[in-house]
Amino acid sequence: MLMEIAALNGACASAIDSGRLEDWPEFFLDQCLYKVTTADNYEKGYQAGLIYADSKAMLGDRISALREANIYERQRYRHILGMPLIVGAPDGTATAETSFLVVRTMRDGQMIVFAAGVYLDKLQRNDAGAWRYSERIVVCDSQRFDTLLAIPL
User: Fold this and answer.
1) Are 96 and 86 in contact (CB under 8 A)?
2) Are the CB atoms for 122 and 98 separated by under 8 Å?
3) How many CA atoms lie within 13 A of 122 on its CB side?
4) Fewest C-beta atoms under 10 Å: which of 30, 86, 115, 142?
5) What are the backbone dihedrals phi and psi of residue 146, each rounded to the nearest 5 degrees, phi first?
6) Is a pLDDT exceeding 70 seen at residue 147?
7) Which whole number is the average pLDDT over 1-23?
8) Are the CB atoms for 19 and 76 separated by under 8 Å?
9) Sign, Cα dihedral of 123, 91, 39, 5
10) Where do the domains of the chain lie, and which CATH numbers do they carry?
11) Quick one: 27 exposed, middle or buried, by C-beta within 10 A (0-12, 13-18, 19+)?
């Protein structure tokens, strides 16, 4: 199970890092939750997030908006992922925590550490038996982002 979930995390990050954003929603179940928040807001129990989607369809809409409507400076991410810590796996589900670091490279070549934090994931197997996210809460250590958070983390 550990290696399957690590492989899912890697494939999901690769889809984002390589610009295959249309593939990214496929790592989620149809009914899912994806939220990006700060550690401070998470600890206080705040429900709102910098990004909030409660279905795979909303994730697809976000990608469509990025491609067709939003205007933002071209950038690229590179994820560095820790090994997932499987917290629990009752009833065919799994709960995992995975540390992450995202380096952002801008069009002019400038690179910065854009985000660091932890993925808090709930996972289930889909009809084909593959692990998919039923919930991914992206908890960022910092409260500050120096630009619009356009691309999913």
Assistant:
1) yes
2) no
3) 11
4) 30
5) -80, 0
6) no
7) 97
8) yes
9) negative
10) 2-140 (3.10.450.50)
11) buried
Interior CA angle at 77 toward 73 and 79, to 5°? Answer: 165
pLDDT band per the 50, 70, 90 thresholds, residue 136: very high
Query: Token pair 């409260």 is at which residue?
Result: 143
The answer to whether 8 and 123 have CB atoms below 8 angstroms apart is yes
From the list 71, 70, 37, the residue with the least C-alpha distance to 52 is 37
Token pair listed for 31: 């009914």
Please give the model's pTM, rounded to 2 decimal places.
Answer: 0.93
Strand pairing report for 85-88 and 28-38: unpaired
d(CA 28, CA 99): 19
User: Cα separation of 121 and 145, whole Å?
Assistant: 22
Question: Which of 22, 24, 20 lies closest to 12 in space, CA to CA?
Answer: 24
Q: Which of 87, 149, 74, 73 is nearest to 118 (CA)?
A: 87
Give the type of residue at 16: I
